[in-house]
Amino acid sequence: MPGKTRLDPMIFNLPVEQIAAGYYSDKYFVRARDVLLADNHAPNVVMQVFCRTPAFLAGMDEAIAILKLCSPDWDLLRVHALYDGDSIDPWETVMTIEGPYPLFAHLETLYLGVLSRRTRVATNTRRVVNAASPKEVMFFPARHDLWSVQAGDGYAAHIAGATSVSTDAQASVWGDNGVGTVPHALIAAYGGDTVLATRKLAEHMPDEVRLVTLVDFDNDCVDTSVSVAGELGDRLYGVRLDTSATLVDKSLIDDKGNFDLELHGGVCQQLVFNVRRGLDVAGFPNVKIIVSGGMTVAKIARFEAERVPCDGYGVGSSLLSGQGDFDFTADIVMVNGVECAKIGREFSPNESLQLVD
């Protein structure tokens, strides 16, 4: 694939000794390796890896890093693989590993797990990016999962087209930094005063930090947005709407206190229109509007179809969903040059695979 490159295996900071020892591997793979070594039996095999669903591939460079760093002799293996960022079809072979089986028998759990996890994140992100295009998509699921998955997940989101990520760890693979907004906690720390909290962040952060503030603390997104914009002027990049689905913003409640939670609960289309109109009338047409809170592909598609005037989407837990949808499977399909595979898992060559150096 001209122009495509692979990441340095060292960037993943793998616990090489523990992986090589089988600490993270399903026990039956470790025992299979131990039996082969004890029996002095090292058949040359071709292992074939595939996914059952269409997907946007990620985790391949990390899987290769596991093989390179945790096999006792990488030089005896020949690996052919697709690249991170490739679109794959159901049952398409994404990687083959050829060589003496005891050299990599214990690594199957690791490289399959990495491919499944990162491909799920990348595919979910890609679907959101496509629905939101050409608007920004901010990758915000860090608080919904373990800290240890952040770097690889962030890279998966990055190659899938996410505009930004929320932690430095998520951005570490490509050498960037996380971005964020003025959080509710900082607003609370300043007595619930969104304007003051935003001004304080502007005072103590470098000018290059993009200033975006949450404006739903008082459930009054229009007035809060206008007030913050009036205080910060051109220093304010944007406001973020994150109203809970159990609430209806003040601007959507009529003079008699009536509201429709089903229609106007949370960050709904009309709320965005109201905030945009409020900012424009107040003389702040350049202040951008970011929406978050329950954003899914379907909801974003509705917003775009109705030309809702937001400038970007913050998406969180939905990008981690779909457990099991992106499972990868590995099968031995050839042994010592002869086809030998479980019924239904026959050798399926893929001319798109590229030899890994």
Task: Describe it.
- This protein is of the alpha/beta class.
- The protein has two domains: 9-120 and 323-355, nicotinate phosphoribosyltransferase; 124-320, Aldolase class I (TIM Barrel).
- It has eleven helices and 14 strands.
- The strands form three sheets. Strands 13-12-1-5-3-14 form a six-stranded antiparallel sheet. Strands 7-6-11-10-9-8 form a six-stranded parallel sheet. The chain has a two-stranded antiparallel sheet with strand order 2-4.
- Helix 3 (60-70) runs antiparallel to helix 4 (108-132), helix 7 packs parallel to helix 8 and helix 8 runs parallel beside helix 10 (269-281).
- The chain is elongated, with a radius of gyration of 25 Å.
- It starts with 15 loop residues before the first helix and ends with a strand.
